Amino acid sequence: MKPLRKERLQQAIKQELSKILLEDMNDERLKFVTITDVELSDDQKYLKVYFSTMPGKNSEQILQSLERVKGYVSGEVARTLRLRFAPEIKFELDNSIERGVRMVKLLEDLEKKDEVKEDESHEDESTDHTEETNEEP
Q: Where is the region Disordered?
């Protein structure tokens, strides 16, 4: 399959999956799922679906729910997009967003520590300067 066609097809699959999970599923847990990426095999028989969920939601339960409906979802994707095969879906939790949030927080904490150190060093310099001017020759 040509790379451009594959990319467009993957994008269409991603949109269709999101729509199916939001509109067709009765399981409320699946309403909190965001499809972050999909990878379709060249023969279109296998589809790896990466998803994330809101913090505080039980990702293991959500994964189990996704596993229960993957046959239906696969068939709907194939029917809607007129695929030759209904791809075998494998869902994988995508923690990259959570990792990114943690990294940003760590960087912010480091920045705050650096600011505190700079403030302390400026205070030390001003104290040293004041002491020097108060000395008698």
A: 112-137
